[in-house]
Amino acid sequence: MSNDQNDLLRRARNRRTALAPQRPAAADVDAGPAPLSHAQQRMWLMEHLGQGGALYNVPIATRLRGPLDRAALATALTGLTERHAVLRTRYPRRGEQPYQHLEAAGPVPLAVLDATGDGTEQLAAEAARPFDLTDGPVLRALLLRHAPEDHTLLLTIHHIAVDGGSLPVLAADLAELYAAARDGVEPRLPAPGMPYAEYARQERARDTELTAAADALAARLAGARPLPLLRPVAPGARERRAGLHAVPLDPATVEGLRQLGARHGATLFAVVLTAAFATLRTAGGQDDLTLGCASGHRARPELRRTVGLGVNTLAVRAEPAGDASFAEALALVRGALLEAQQHHQVPFDLVVERLGAAARGADGTPLLSASCDLVQPATALTLPGLDAEHVDVDLELAKFDLTLVLEEGPRPRCLVQHDHAALDGATAARLAEAFAAVLRAVVEDADRPLAELPGELLARADRHPVLEALAAHPGVADAAVVETADGQPLAYAVVRGAVAPSGTDLRARLRAAVPAAELPLAVTLLDRIPRGADGAVDRDRLPGAAARDAHSTPAARAEAARATAATGPRVLVRTAFGVRR
Question: Is the pTM of this model over 0.90?
């Protein structure tokens, strides 16, 4: 046999070895219980305190058309959990301390149901069903049957076991495992990444180093203030119901943003983050802002195919002034982002622990309540021999009070997601429009000052002078003004700070700031502005408003009724983009 033939055979043997089916690493089986990573610990704690619910469920749904082999799919799902032990891990406790317990590999149940209608309600109900982290499992599979060759596959995984970087790995492995099971051959898979339990052990071994680094990061965030645009929300369990507002962008705009970044040595994300800073600076009337963004832990080669929760939150603090150009603000934000990324391995929960009470504003609003992201549109799970189409299953829950997103893809768009308890829908919708307008404007002229970007015009429009004056007071966290049927404005405020202003103090300020005809009789202090489920002010629960209407003159009441029939009741709500009517 020639040397060339020997070389070809050696290469073939090596290739078969590299692509042979991989068994769980010894560390998965023999190393015993593992600690939770810091990211897992925070997620477990939220569930333990009853603040998780479906918030950390990750639904992945795909419409599959064609001859689906259900037995092969069930085999593939079982193979997936054999290969990635984090998918068969549960989280019991010893005393008060949770730990990772790896279950032995076993069949993954694949529930099969006939679809009712288009199956939307069934998918939503299954995706929202909570997990029991103590007993497991953390992966559920449901197959909805629309017709003999038309199904929707829903995988629901708890976030404690996966992150965004895990999903492409799972998708590729599932496709290969399905093809191999269907064809009766061994799967040809690359070696898996480091077992997640081992990653958690390595992270915990560095706790002393990470804690010291967290002290330094906390010092950099000292004095930072929450975004004043957001309403204070009492800490603890709440629904976190989300609203989502989308504004389409031209693909040329996204390409222009990418080129803008390249000219200034910045990534597309840095440009988007700067636009978010510029938009929120205008909306909140505050230069010093801190935004969150996600960072992964997959730079090390051995982690690139690891399935697990390898994501951290970075706090990026910047103070772009209104007279700075967008290009100058980009340099500032890019520097702040790079500095934050240098410490991407420091768990943000450690930073919050070091900040203590300073992690929240005087009114209780979290320091890191707003975030920014750059995402790709969701893709379908592709299985060989089948046509696949992604199915969106929106749980309508918000992890942050406010998130500004640029979604790339063939049909790019700006997205603003918000917690209804922290921001009303009308303001969030205007915020989405303003964010999109800023992105379009900076492509045309990156030297334009921040104060002249489109959002500034929206912010100045149609603002009631009483709201202007109250919003400008640093001791006011939230405010509302209503006009009674006789045209008399009534003002309400939620105050904050160790030395909070009184209602008399605020009215004295108003007397000097607004015309006499607009001056309210008093400023009533409230613990919270009453609002409905959509975030709009509930006029009926504002003390004194209903009584003033009841005692107005008959003529005034008749006029008010005609005005209400034509335009609806006039309620003025403090927002940065004007009044919500």
Answer: no
